[in-house]
Here is the input.
Amino acid sequence: MSLKAQLDARRRAFAASTPPGIVAALEGSVAELVRAGLVRQALKAGERAPLFRLQSNIGDFVSLSEALDRGPAVVSFFRGDWCPFCRLELQALAEAHSEIERLGATLIGLSPLPSADSYSSFPILKDPGCRIAARCRIAFTVAPQFRRAYLALGYPEGLKKGPDRWVLPLPATYIIDREGIVVLSYVDADYTTRLEPTEIAMALPHLRARGNPSSSV
Here is the structure.
């Protein structure tokens, strides 16, 4: 089953088992992000990706520049494994990880709230306060009127209060060439949609065949 089919099924199941007011609030939060134009402002193909060195969910540090020394990188931002839609994406990426590696790329996940005990075959890095997401222009603050709905979706209620508590990234996936240039950018305000791993696998050979160009694929 494709990732899209799994996400669609999960969305229908959530809508069927959740109070309509919560569903409407979550849909309203997506509509507000669309109105704010975050997707239009986000990091795009042809731009240089911000470098980072962040700690993973198992304690080691991963550097984007070191990954790019070995080849292209696939960087996926997700909200956290508290989100059922993120969990489906992580599972799909984990299943595609060996193929992405075979095609010469490094797969990296970034989240402000990665779980220390979540299993993944690729590194999941903690992006505190969405600092790297903000440099990619995909970070946003959940508006107060939508926070109850986010809690119903699974957002951790027991987080320490602070200015970054409600800062999250838009779901986004970037393919970055060895020069640090974004060659594929996928960003969506709708948290229930994600890039299919098969599209990543299709883009990487195209990138290699063109000699690692600094252009969109």
